[in-house]
Amino acid sequence: MASISSQNRVPKVSVFLFVFTICCLFFSLSHVVLAQSSPVFACDVVSNPSLASFGFCNTSLGVSDRVVDLVKRLTLQEKILFLVNSAGSVSRLGIPRYEWWSEALHGVSYVGPGTRFSSVVPGATSFPQVILTAASFNTSLFEAIGKVVSTEARAMYNVGLAGLTYWSPNINIFRDPRWGRGQETPGEDPLLSSKYGSGYVRGLQQRDDGNADGLKVAACCKHYTAYDLDNWKGVDRYHFNAVVTKQDMDDTFQPPFKSCVVDGNVASVMCSYNKVNGIPTCADPNLLSGVIRGEWKLNGCRYIVTDCDSIDVFYNSQHYTKTPEEAAAKAILAGLDLNCGSFLGQHTEAAVKAGLMNESAIDKAISNNFATLMRLGFFDGDPRKQLYGKLGPKDVCSAENQELAREAARQGIVLLKNTAGSLPLSLTAIKNLAVIGPNANVTKTMIGNYEGTPCKYTTPLQGLAARVATTYLPGCSNVACSTAQVADAQKMAAAADATVLVMGADQSIEAESRDRVNILLPGQQQLLITAIANASTGPVILVIMSGGGMDVSFAKTNDKITSILWVGYPGEAGGAAIADIIFGSYNPSGRLPMTWYPQSYVDNVPMTNMNMRPDPSSGYPGRTYRFYTGLTVYSFGDGLSYSQFSHKLIQAPLLVSVPLEESHVCYSSECKSVAAAEQTCQNINFDMHLRIKNTGTMSGSHTVFLFSTPPSVHNSPQKHLVGFEKIFLHAQTDRHVIFKVDVCKDLSVVDELGSRKVALGEHVLHIGSLKHSFTVRI
Ligand SMILES: *[C@@H]1O[C@H](CO)[C@@H](O)[C@H](O)[C@H]1NC(C)=O
Ligand SMILES: *[C@@H]1O[C@H](CO)[C@@H](O)[C@H](O)[C@H]1NC(C)=O
Ligand SMILES: *[C@@H]1O[C@H](CO)[C@@H](O)[C@H](O)[C@H]1NC(C)=O
Ligand SMILES: *[C@@H]1O[C@H](CO)[C@@H](O)[C@H](O)[C@H]1NC(C)=O
Ligand SMILES: *[C@@H]1O[C@H](CO)[C@@H](O)[C@H](O)[C@H]1NC(C)=O
């Protein structure tokens, strides 16, 4: 998302942020409550009894009848007010202005005009940036966070500070390590992204009264689709045409969106800025009406929204249509319902007058928008008398919610290297801990982007200093680290029993509209780390705070650097969680949700090449653990524990038959695969039984990954994740884990034409170092 104007998009953002800063300052200095303290809602029959006669205000009627009643009362000009994020009011019908744009990527956010903080609610719980939460591989955590966020959102709505419609989560595949927004996503794997998206959405949307038609708040899966480049070497998202094969589309870019709509029942999907194969996503009837509504059955109580301001972008920047009226008509006729921006407000009436579209198309769009608001209770009168009406400021930043932020960071943090005798540090042995680095005492850096004002911060230094005596030096003035205080840092490390180096990136290195070209640690960081390691006497723990992976090969191979931790952007309680892990009060269990490539990878691979699969003829190496076979710094799924876990196979099939009709062509000629959509290819399941044991001396959680390597047909992935399960095991105990595998769903691959196929022949399942082969035949 960017600002709302096509011209000078960037300057406008800065003006907005500037104004915001001033407001914050004003609020905190004066403690004056300027905000209204009541929620915005329609059908206030208490203040205005005449509204009770309107069918759309009648809660005994169904949503669709109420929507029909409302739409028929509106003039064309009034209808158009409801096509944009800053929706207009119709006072004769008791409908107030409503701002659709709020954000809640990892906590209620002030990005988006629908939500703000004040002295009434000065902050909200700020969870780790999504990439770190994803590293927990804990699906119940994804949902638990969503639930807390929606509770805080409702509480803020009740005092007039927040909206009900949140444009989160971001479930684009983290295709390339340079992407500045990779931090916002659940990583590079379609299955993990699907589980994250549907879990977080359920947490946001699901009501506690079991009313499945109602919404606690409305979520939105974005940015549809194949969007994962912001600004790289002069190519920006407003002009980029993502050239995507049918195969990559259907097995990499689309699955998270499909899962979000089908499994997560998300209330909304947002189309992106970029073009896909020459067509802007927000103008593509096939991608919107065809796939989202047609194939995935996004029903009429859910809406499709543009990124801000995608229609303007495809008219003014991509010159996709000759006139603005055509752009407006194309978007609405493609299946769009709501425009973040003002474009549809300005050009829709003229588009109708010019005969480019009928009013009925507008009716359809606003009906979807109204239906969403009805599901949220917006047309049911005072929300303080409804299910979530008792929530208020006391429910935001509660001790319990803040503890979950700390727990989420602990669960996500990944231990990448640990030489015997390094971590965990002993509280009794360490009398003096040196804490060094430009990220060692940061606050805002820890919450990444799409952030809100947090309840409070615990910096890494504060977290560590709460356990032992520390000395502290930033080492560089910021993460860009153009000069480093090498000698002072060496002296400090030499005098300490152990050294923790907190390095990495922040939004000045990787951000929205800012992709990297370099994935090494910025500036002089590497030099500083190496010099400190060389001078230190005790263990040296390198903590990388970043969204994207870093080429830290130098540290991996340096024996003096005894441990490496990746902490993402760990949220408001990040420093406490880092200390929990370093001192062993929590046993690390996070696993990397994305490949960490060497710098040579980005030197050789253009970010603009969307292909997932390698191309031997050009030397193109492919992308992600599913296709890339070259060197990595760290791999998808990497992550150590203070314990060890063993996997034992108890039961798995050696042979699976997919029966076919007698007349099937595969009986007369040899087939390499059969269609997963075959009538007979349904519900062919087997259970895989495993015994997982914690063979170490410390209790801890462990993620069991089930990968599959299919026979090599259809350019299929070398391996792909079929399932994962995170379990907790006390030291020296074991547990039986069962994976239920649906052969046609879970083990199938997408062929060159985009159809799912079950390959015939030998499949290999991997669990840790365990391998099990079995044959699929007809
Ligand atoms: C609301 O709808 C119900 C069901 O159709 C109807 O019985 C009732 O009279 C309506 N209420 C008002 C105030 O019109
Ligand atoms: C408008 O509606 C008429 C009558 O249903 C139909 O024939 C025409 O194709 C529609 N125009 C557009 C642009 O959809
Ligand atoms: C660490 O950061 C906190 C919060 O910004 C600040 O209050 C504190 O003074 C800093 N500590 C040091 C030693 O600089
Ligand atoms: C490490 O320290 C030793 C002596 O303490 C010095 O000779 C060597 O050059 C140093 N190496 C680096 C990479 O700083
Ligand atoms: C998953 O997260 C939930 C919520 O924080 C937690 O209660 C549970 O213990 C976690 N599971 C494992 C196996 O760590």
UniProtKB/TrEMBL annotation:
SUPFAM superfamilies: (Trans)glycosidases, Beta-D-glucan exohydrolase, C-terminal domain. Keywords: Carbohydrate metabolism, Extracellular matrix, Glycoprotein, Glycosidase, Hydrolase, Multifunctional enzyme, Polysaccharide degradation, Secreted, Signal, Xylan degradation. It is found in: Secreted, Extracellular space, Extracellular matrix. It comes from the Eukaryota. Residues 1-35 form the signal peptide. It comes from Salix dunnii. Its main location: secreted. Belongs to the glycoside hydrolase 3 family. This is Fibronectin type III-like domain-containing protein. It catalyses: Hydrolysis of terminal non-reducing alpha-L-arabinofuranoside residues in alpha-L-arabinosides; Hydrolysis of (1->4)-beta-D-xylans, to remove successive D-xylose residues from the non-reducing termini. One of its GO terms (biological process) is xylan catabolic process. The keyword Glycoprotein applies. Pfam families: Fn3-like, Glyco_hydro_3, Glyco_hydro_3_C. PANTHER family: BETA-D-XYLOSIDASE 4-RELATED, SUGAR HYDROLASE-RELATED. One of its GO terms (cellular component) is apoplast.
